[in-house]
């Protein structure tokens, strides 16, 4: 008992917030001393009246260096020679945004102009002795300064290549970033520290008392449902680094709606008070499902590798078909290692929201640029069209040398709609975050939300999700969707889709009346149409292969929303096809989404099944209301349900036994009172015996041990799981493990 108590207290000490991880820098506070050193080393002195230069070129070189350190581009505004000696006697240098834009009325395709009336400038004059002095200096700008992106300005592009090295720039950016956010939150800036620590030394930064709140939350959740899963990752000094958890409902939802998952790091990258990341899915009512939460110490490859592998284990080692994330090299590498067969894509709004920040110098032509940009990514039907438009766009706006733009092109298969044929995002990839299902969590999490507040709101999140889904299920059982047209497509889908997705599809059916198609060409297998949509006054390309029942539209409604568009519907209708091909009716959107049997090829069978399902649900509700009136009626109803379920199982599965994989996680326990957990020490945990991720340890149960499946331990090609320690409330302190067991 005493030994277990010490282990438990040692674990608690890892949750303490006073200790630090692998770096020898205090990562809890802004690195003031480090900042001052960097400033002394890298910042150019501000222009002063007492400065002298050998020539006006030297003066301009100084002004350029000053501008680069502060964050603006420069230009030579004017210069003047002596009429007698013909030597330069006067020169004026300015910010590239100095003055106002001038453009003739008949200009064709004018080049973008950065001028917005900025007054920042430096005026120098020549003394009789040949030296140059600062005659006047205007420091103030009327726009934001961009020290971290200064190398993008044309005046600074030809600087020393060593100074333009990415790693050097990252180290120089440490000063500005640490002032704003604290160095512990910026991975790029701590690159040298992390390299020395092999990306493993960081520790999670929490406020006093947060650790105990977190642990008590885990204990409470697991008491309510033993299937609640959580895991913690300790650094080399055995201090808390990363934490992951998911409730039983999240794991259950993943079995049905795990085809598309969004990995949302918005709250972490936007420097919210809690370093929270979320795994989010979407159910058949177009409602977000929470598939996991994590608190992470940094954005290193190691952290994301640990997190992806841990989430993979929690989800029963079933990989999603598609996973969406922000554009991040560490995330990309981790997903490629853990989910080699998964299609990794960047959410569109993640890419689009970065444009104003990354291309800030184009702000004056933002609207013009976005029109061309949207045409390039949304209207390019083929890869060849995209390539042509992309390079034309870059040439027009002089973007070929911009590193971020280069990275977008290199990662084009991860985000450009042209490359998304044949997959579906189920509505999780949108143009704006406000349109994205992920944004529904924003009402629970604000920038200053503390961990204590989030834990309380986490319970509200789960309760709201349960209630909204239950209400949608109830409506599906009790209400029949209203048909608004004689369309056979509308009638067909009304018997299959849930109400929410049917209403969206219904809009497309009605919208087909505003579409006019024209056959463009036809070969042996495929017919291509141009569809004019009079509602948005746009033309769309639709390809139809009747033999394979394949249909693709350039609006990509099926890829991004998961159901066919009006343009495809009008082509099907004019081709004599009056039912949606089954391949374009995703089971995830149907009333039978949670059925263990697939939709199959015959939609009439699906429709009959849905009718039977809805009828049984209505009758079950009536039985529940009547059976709950007394204990006697309850017992009768319960016995009837059990017997009916048994007989149905025999009829439907005469031979097979339904075996489900159950994830069981053994956690720490010690028979101690809750109030004994209140004193958290800062002791370092004794070196635990870490489980090898490639081996499945034995299950520690309530008084007995069950041998693990040896075959499951030898799966080849798996990524080794980084060291994981799990904390919880069962029979003793054990390492985290996963085992597949049969339901009894």
From TrEMBL:
Region (Disordered): 691-719
Residue span, SWIM-type domain: 540-576
Biological process according to GO: regulation of DNA-templated transcription
Entry's Gene Ontology molecular function annotations: zinc ion binding
InterPro entries, alphabetized: FAR1_DNA_bnd_dom, FHY3/FAR1, MULE_transposase_dom, Znf_PMZ, Znf_SWIM
Source species, domain of life: Eukaryota
RNA-binding among keywords: no
Localization annotation: Nucleus
Assigned GO CC terms: nucleus
Keywords attached to this entry: Metal-binding, Nucleus, Zinc, Zinc-finger
Role according to the record: Putative transcription activator involved in regulating light control of development.
Family recorded in the similarity comment: Belongs to the FHY3/FAR1 family.
Protein name: Protein FAR1-RELATED SEQUENCE
């Amino acid at each position: 008992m005493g030994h277990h108590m010490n282990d438990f207290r040692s674990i608690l000490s890892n949750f303490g917030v006073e200790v630090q991880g692998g770096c020898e820098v205090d990562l809890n506070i802004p690195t003031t001393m480090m900042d001052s050193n960097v400033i002394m080393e890298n910042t150019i002195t501000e222009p002063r009246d007492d400065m002298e230069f050998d020539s006006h070129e030297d003066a301009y070189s100084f002004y350029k260096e000053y501008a680069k350190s502060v964050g603006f581009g420069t230009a030579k505004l004017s210069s003047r020679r002596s009429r007698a000696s013909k030597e330069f006697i006067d020169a004026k240098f300015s910010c590239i945004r100095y003055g106002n834009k001038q453009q003739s009325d008949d200009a064709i395709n004018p080049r973008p102009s950065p001028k917005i009336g900025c007054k920042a400038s430096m005026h120098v004059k020549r003394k009789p002795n040949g030296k140059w002095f600062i005659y006047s200096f205007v420091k103030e700008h009327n726009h934001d300064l961009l020290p971290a992106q200064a190398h993008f300005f044309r005046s600074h592009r030809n600087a020393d290549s060593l100074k333009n090295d990415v790693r050097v720039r990252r180290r120089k950016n440490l000063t500005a970033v640490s002032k704003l956010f604290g160095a512990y939150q910026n991975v790029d800036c701590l690159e040298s520290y992390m390299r020395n620590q092999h990306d493993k030394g960081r520790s999670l930064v929490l406020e006093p008392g947060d650790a105990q709140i977190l642990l008590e939350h885990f204990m409470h959740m697991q008491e309510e449902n033993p299937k609640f899963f959580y895991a913690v990752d300790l650094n080399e000094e055995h201090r808390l680094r990363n934490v992951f958890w998911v409730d039983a409902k999240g794991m259950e939802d993943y079995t049905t709606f795990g085809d598309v998952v969004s990995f949302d790091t918005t709250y972490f990258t936007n420097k919210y008070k809690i370093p929270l990341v979320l795994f989010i899915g979407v159910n058949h009512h177009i409602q977000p499902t929470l598939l996991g939460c994590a608190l992470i110490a940094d954005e290193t490859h190691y952290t994301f590798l640990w997190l992806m592998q841990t989430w993979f284990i929690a989800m029963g080692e079933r990989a999603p078909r598609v996973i969406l994330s922000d554009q991040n090299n560490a995330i990309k590498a981790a997903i490629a290692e853990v989910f080699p067969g998964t299609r990794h894509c960047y959410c569109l709004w993640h890419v689009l929201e970065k444009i104003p920040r990354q291309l800030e110098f184009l702000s004056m032509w933002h609207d013009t640029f976005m029109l061309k940009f949207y045409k390039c990514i949304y209207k390019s039907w083929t890869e060849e069209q995209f390539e042509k438009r992309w390079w034309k766009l870059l040439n027009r706006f002089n973007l070929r040398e911009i590193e971020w733009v280069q990275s977008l092109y290199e990662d084009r298969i991860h985000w450009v709609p042209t490359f998304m044929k044949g997959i579906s995002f189920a509505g999780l990839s949108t143009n704006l975050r406000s349109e994205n299902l992920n944004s529904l969590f924003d009402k629970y999490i604000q920038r200053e939300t503390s961990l204590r507040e989030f834990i309380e709101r986490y319970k509200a999140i789960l309760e709201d999700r349960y209630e909204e889904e239950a209400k949608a299920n109830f409506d599906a059982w009790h209400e029949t969707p209203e048909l608004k047209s004689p369309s056979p497509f509308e009638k067909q889908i009304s018997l299959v889709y849930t109400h929410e997705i049917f209403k969206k599809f219904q809009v497309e059916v009605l919208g087909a009346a505003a579409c006019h198609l024209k056959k463009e060409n036809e070969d042996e297998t495929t017919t291509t149409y141009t569809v004019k949509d009079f509602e948005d006054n746009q033309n769309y390309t639709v390809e139809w292969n009747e033999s394979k029942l394949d249909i693709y539209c350039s609006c990509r409604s099926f890829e991004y929303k998961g159901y066919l568009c009006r343009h495809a519907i009008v082509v099907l209708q004019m081709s004599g096809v009056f039912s949606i091909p089954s391949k374009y009716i995703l089971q995830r959107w149907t009333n039978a989404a949670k059925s263990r049997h697939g939709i199959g090829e015959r939609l009439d069978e699906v429709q009959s099944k849905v009718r039977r399902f809805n009828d049984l649900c209505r009758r079950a509700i009536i039985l529940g209301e009547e059976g709950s009136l007394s204990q006697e009626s309850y017992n009768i109803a319960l016995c009837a349900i059990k017997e009916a379920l048994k007989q149905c199982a025999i009829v439907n599965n005469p031979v097979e036994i339904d075996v489900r994989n159950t994830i069981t996680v053994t956690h720490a326990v010690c028979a101690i009172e809750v109030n004994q957990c209140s004193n958290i020490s800062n002791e370092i945990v004794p070196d635990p015996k870490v489980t090898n991720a490639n081996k499945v340890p034995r299950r520690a149960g309530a008084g007995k041990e069950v041998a693990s499946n040896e075959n499951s331990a030898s799966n080849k090609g798996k990524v080794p799981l980084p060291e994981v320690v799990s904390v919880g409330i069962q029979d003793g302190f054990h390492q985290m493990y996963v085992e597949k067991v049969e339901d009894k």
